[in-house]
Structure formats: structure tokens, C-alpha cells
Amino acid sequence: MKSDLFAAENLAQQAAVPGMSLQNAKSVKYTVNGEMHARQGSMVAFRGNLQFERKGQGLGGMLKRAVTGEGLALMAVRGQGEAWFAHEAQNCFIVDIEPGDALTVNGRNVLCFDATLSYEIKTVKGAGMTGGGLFNSVFTGHGKLALICDGNPIVIPVSTNQPVYADTDAVVGWSAQLNTSLHRSQSVGSMIRGGSGEAVQLKLEGEGFVVVRPSELVPKAE
Q1: Cα separation values, 165 from 41, 189, 219, Å
Q2: Rounded distance, CA 116 to CA 95, Å?
Q3: β-bridge partners, 171
Q4: Nearest to 95 by CA among 143, 25, 29, 145
Q5: Separation of CA 34 from chain center
Q6: How many helices (H) and strands (E) does the chain have?
């Protein structure tokens, strides 16, 4: 059988080393030798001896998720084999987190990650329960984290002299050491998304970066 479907870039190859890698722009391949964690429902294929199990968040995490809609419905993947992960054909990116790093990420943008990483739901400082309740997931430790984004992300440096104001619906994540607060703008509110009146942005200050997606669509509840 002949087809450009069978082009080399589309064929799954045997992995040389355990861990995650990009299969293509829309999916992540994970060679499992032990345990890893992934967003529930994100596995699109696997081969080998793997077991999939719903992973609890603990009572505090579950309560926060129920109140705010933020959080990760996770599954643990154990055994030896290969699995592929994707979500609604969104673009995939792999972040290497090293000891001392801390990355704050919106739960909707997490695809999968190494079991060596720690994850905790925290309130966005300065935001409280306004603006829909801003709770994000903070990742620390040593390992890889795969993120998904609706479109190609925009990474904006943040410096002491140049704070960044981001639409709360567009934020993917940011350096956890940044200071956050809510900024209200009457003038901006009348200019974006055809709205009128006051708008709320997330203000980020300090030294680091913020990642935003080129989309302001509010995600569907999962």
C-alpha cells in the first residue's frame, strides 16, 4: 500500500531512551519504564504492558477544583511500554523543570508530566476569588512537563521596569516567582472582544516570563 500517509515524519519509531518526546506538533510520545502522570482522557494510543489508573488529588485539591473549576483530572500510567497523548489537536510543548524552578500553569494547559515532578493547586496571589476565581497549578522538582496550547504560544519577558498585563482567559502560565495582582481597566474593557465597560487583566511584576495563548475563548468545562 502506498500513500503519503506513510511518510517518515508520521511513523512512530522505537524510542532510544525512556521518557517523553514530541511525536509531532500535536502529540507527545512517552516511553514508560515505571510511572508517569497524564491528563485523564488524553491517551490516544499505547503499546506494551501499561496500566492506567485514575489519580486522586487529595481532599483539598478536589475541593478547590469543585469550587473553582481549576485542577487536573489525572491518571497514573504504570508499567513498560509506549503511550501517545494529545488533546483536541492543540499544539504541544515540552518544558524541562530543574531543581529550584517553579512554574505556574493553568490546569487546562497540562497534558502529561514525569512522576518526579510535584504539583499543587494554589490561589493566584492578589487575585482572590474575583475574576472567576484564579487558581493555578504550581510545578516543582526535576523532570519534564508537556503543555498544550490553542495555537502557538507567545512568551513575553517580564522585568522590574516592565510589568505585563495579560487577559485572564489567555494566560497559559508564568514564572512562579513573579508577583501577581488584578488590574482593572475601563478603557481597555471597551476595546477587547467587542465588550464594554470594565475589564480585568492579570498584572505580572518582577523578573521572569509569562506565556499566553493567541485565543481568548473560554474553555469548555470538563
Answers
A1: 33, 13, 20
A2: 14
A3: 212
A4: 145
A5: 23
A6: 2, 16
> What nine digits make up the cell of 172?
497559559
SS3 content of the chain, % helix, strand, coil (to 5): 10, 50, 35
d(CA 214, CA 46): 31
Q: Residue 172: which of 97, 100, 103 has the closest Cα?
A: 103
Other residues' Cβ atoms within 10 Å of the Cβ of residue 132: 14
Distance CA 189, CA 19 (A): 44
Q: What is the pTM of this model?
A: 0.80
Judge contact between 112 and 55, C-beta under 8 A.
Answer: no
Query: Residue 173's CB: how many other CB atoms inside 10 A?
Result: 25
pLDDT tens readout for residues 36-82 = 999 999 999 999 999 999 876 554 454 445 444 445 678 999 999 99
H or E segment and range at residue 112? strand 110-114
Q: How far is CA 66 from the centre of its chain?
A: 19
